[in-house]
């Protein structure tokens, strides 16, 4: 595997490219690659989250997987909703890393160039997450509704444009921001993950010594460890968000608090962790791929740009 120089506090190799372009391009690329790799697990996780009356069992993932393939045509059903998912992930990561980089630069300038503290990472990550969640929530509503049902289900959205038109017609502008509140709570997940990732990365760099490069294996390991840590703390919000974003959410729940009350009363504590197994299977490779593509793109893009500029000159 190629080796990449460990970026410290968001700094990248010098080049003629603005840092914002580098960060957003790296984030966009990471979102596209990660979504293509793990989209079927996203469908599986969402379907399990929406099973209200069934008690969670170890074999549920295989049962739902067989059911999707059997009832919805073939294995292509596992990629239903791929486009809104890809758009959502790529745009989200592009915006997130753009704001995250700029906020870290502001904080580092305020600290006089010193290494950032855990709280700095938390604030930068949390603020970036809030801005990203507000901007991209409409994409996630369409995506959740498309992957929560088969393409042949009554009332199912046929495409992104069909979903936008019908959602606006039936629920108006507020419908595009359904589930935003639990998504904002979910920002804490990203904040916790990034604090853990940045600190683990700094510790690993210190352990390997000054000037020694972090390997791709380091990035895979560190991103996986930070994701497991954050996911174990914040997973329940995803169940609440999914329940609020389905087609008939207004008929079933009056809001996020009502979802929490109903899940607790009807399904118990384990109801908040439905779909967590496929979610872990999905998010670990997704996170590892995302950060690996992000770190490599962030490092190599300026080099490729410099080479192109040199050739043109």
UniProtKB/TrEMBL annotation:
GO terms for biological process: nucleotide transport; transmembrane transport. It is a multi-pass membrane protein. This is Mitochondrial carrier. It is found in: Mitochondrion inner membrane. It comes from the Eukaryota. Belongs to the mitochondrial carrier (TC 2.A.29) family. Keywords: Membrane, Mitochondrion, Mitochondrion inner membrane, Repeat, Transmembrane, Transmembrane helix, Transport. Solcar repeats lie at residues 18-106, 116-203, 218-300. Pfam families: Mito_carr. PANTHER family: MITOCHONDRIAL NICOTINAMIDE ADENINE DINUCLEOTIDE TRANSPORTER 1-RELATED-RELATED. GO terms for cellular component: mitochondrial inner membrane. InterPro entries: MCP_dom_sf, MCP_transmembrane, SLC25A32-like.
């Amino acid at each position: 595997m190629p080796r990449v120089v460990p970026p410290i506090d968001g700094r990248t190799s010098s080049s003629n490219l603005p840092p914002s372009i580098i960060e957003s391009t790296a984030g966009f690329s990471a979102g596209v690659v990660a979504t293509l790799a793990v989209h079927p697990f996203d469908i599986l996780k969402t379907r399990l989250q929406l099973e209200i009356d069934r008690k969670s069992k170890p074999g549920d993932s295989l049962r739902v997987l067989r059911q999707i393939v059997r009832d919805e045509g073939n294995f292509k059903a596992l990629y239903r909703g791929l486009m809104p998912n890809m758009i959502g992930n790529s745009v989200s990561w592009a915006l997130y890393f753009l704001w995250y980089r700029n906020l870290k630069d502001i904080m580092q300038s305020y600290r006089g160039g010193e290494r950032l503290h855990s709280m700095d990472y938390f604030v930068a990550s949390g603020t970036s997450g809030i801005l990203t969640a507000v901007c991209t929530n409409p994409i996630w509503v369409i995506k959740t509704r498309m992957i929560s049902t088969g393409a042949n289900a009554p009332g199912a959205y046929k495409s992104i444009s069909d979903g936008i038109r019908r959602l606006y017609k039936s629920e108006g502008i507020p419908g595009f921001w359904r589930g935003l509140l639990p998504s904002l709570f979910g920002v804490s997940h990203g904040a916790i993950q990034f604090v853990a990732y940045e600190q683990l990365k700094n510790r690993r760099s210190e352990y390997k010594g000054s000037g020694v490069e972090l390997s791709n294996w380091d990035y895979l390991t560190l991103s996986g460890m930070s994701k497991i840590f954050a996911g174990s703390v914040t997973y329940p919000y995803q169940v609440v968000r999914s329940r609020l974003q389905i087609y008939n959410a207004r008929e079933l729940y009056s809001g996020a608090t009502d979802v929490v009350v109903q899940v607790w009363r009807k399904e118990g504590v384990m109801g908040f962790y439905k779909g967590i197994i496929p979610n872990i299977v999905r998010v670990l490779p997704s996170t590892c791929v995302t950060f690996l593509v992000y770190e490599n793109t962030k490092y190599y893009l300026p080099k490729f740009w410099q080479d192109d500029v040199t050739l043109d000159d």
